[in-house]
Amino acid sequence: MKKNIHLSVLLIVLLIVSCKQDVKKVVVEEKATETSAEPDKKKPLSPHTSTMAMIGDAHIHIDYSSPGVRNRIIFGGLLAYDQLWQAGAHMATWIETNKDLIIDGKMLPAGKYGFFTIPSKEEWTIIFNSNWDQHGKDEYEEKDDVLRFKVKPIISDEVTEHLEYQVNKINDNEGAISLSWEKVSIKFNFKVNQ
Length: 194
Description:
alpha+beta; 2 domains; 10 strands; DUF2911 domain-containing protein; DUF2911
């Protein structure tokens, strides 16, 4: 009889302990389900961004999506040489100026422009196109180019992970626009037309 009581007590204790562990397991599983039910808040692969600066009275604004290198060969790989590129991801990159600019000895009238490039190993073609509101280069037409000129790329040992534009002031009348991505940078100066 005593054996049966001890055995019964032991079974009851084991049952209680087992139930408590099952309850804990259920609570943990419910919390895990609640957490995974939240929307995925991953950072976009090509975040939309912009840069701007005042050079004298000129307000220069660049709007673009900034793709990452993500262990890829970009120029001459992902982006073939000698092919038109919208100089960003998704929508075409655009540049807006409220003042006429002189770039490469040519006038760029105040306005908003699609910014395109044709990268190559030795030199890049820089293009300001009147059609600024387009997906990628889907609607690009050369006849809409307002300004074209060439620059030499600068090759670095360091990798710029995400495409980055900068507008830098040289003085009250001059500035520089640069693009850097992977191990390549390009840069060109401009003057505000007085």
